[in-house]
Design a protein that fits this description.
This protein is of the alpha+beta class. The chain has 2 domains: about 1-70, Glutaredoxin (3-Layer(aba) Sandwich); about 85-195, Up-down Bundle (Glutathione S-transferase Yfyf (Class Pi), Chain A, domain 2), CATH 1.20.1050. It contains 10 helices and 4 strands, in the order βαβαββαααααααα. The longest helix has 25 residues, at about 195-220. Bound molecules: glutathione. Glutathione binds near residues 11, 34, 49 and 62.
Length: about 230
């Protein structure tokens, strides 16, 4: 049986977790935090989660895992069959990851651990986030799903990237990145009603206080000790 390794606060792990649930594939969830131990690095070479255990061995990198799950040809397809339409969905997934998720990521240490980042990093994150949301607005179809009329992997990546990135924009830069993007807001609301999304959100929210405490202890022990 497939085994997914991750933890409930990880937005990347949640992408794979939701895809497995939506596809209806049997799998086991193995709670795992990222680390640089030889044991974990043997399974995930950069020490990150998620990674997937398959009958043939381990797989890492979320987009690769998502592709692998589709290529197995089991369960509900989350990519179109037509090669061009499939490539369009993949382009949207890549744009969301590169220009929204990774644009926001440097700010997570400040969001979750209270670390103050240098202005150069903050300014780059602000500019990249604005460009990333503009890219999605230009290219996403939102009819009502990111790539058109069907739920695809682009929605999975969008859900676990855009919400967090919009929080970063609001909290640190006073930007309402979804303010002039009603279709994206509506889609986030629709996706939020999905039962599997609700389950993963409840697990994330339950795990969040412990995760924040661990991040604060890691990045700013003095502050953590002071509460
Ligand atoms: N490129 C990786 C990114 C995964 C990633 O950044 N995972 C985070 C958790 S959301 C992690 O493991 N962070 C620990 C670290 O960077 O050392 C993927 O696509 O799976």
């Amino acid at each position: 049986m497939l085994k997914l390794y991750g933890f409930p606060v990880s937005n990347y792990a949640n992408m794979v977790h939701l895809a497995l649930l939506e596809k209806g594939l049997p799998f086991e969830y193995v709670p795992t935090v990222p680390e640089q131990s030889p044991e974990l690095l043997a399974k995930s070479p950069r020490g990150k989660v998620p990674f997937l255990e398959t009958p043939q061995g381990y797989l890492n990198e979320t987009s690769v895992i998502l592709d692998y799950l589709e290529d197995r040809g089991e369960g509900r397809p989350l990519l179109p069959a037509d090669p061009y339409q499939k490539a369009l969905v993949r382009a949207l997934m890549k744009e969301i990851e590169l220009y929204i998720e990774l644009a926001a990521r440097p700010m997570y240490a400040e969001l979750l651990a209270g670390v103050t980042l240098p202005d150069a990093i903050r300014n780059k994150a602000r500019d990249d986030l604005q460009a990333g949301f503009a890219t999605l607005k230009r290219h996403g179809r939102f009819a009502p799903y990111v790539a058109g009329d069907s739920f695809t992997l682009a929605d999975v990546v969008f859900l676990y990237s855009a919400e967090l990135a919009a929080r970063v924009g609001q909290k640190f830069f006073g930007l309402d990145l979804l303010g002039d993007f009603p279709a994206a807001r509506a889609l986030l609301a629709t996706l939020g009603e999905n039962p599997n999304v609700k389950t993963l959100a409840a697990q994330r929210d339950a795990a969040m206080p412990g995760f924040v405490a661990a991040m604060r202890a890691k990045y700013n022990p003095g502050k953590a000790a002071a509460g």
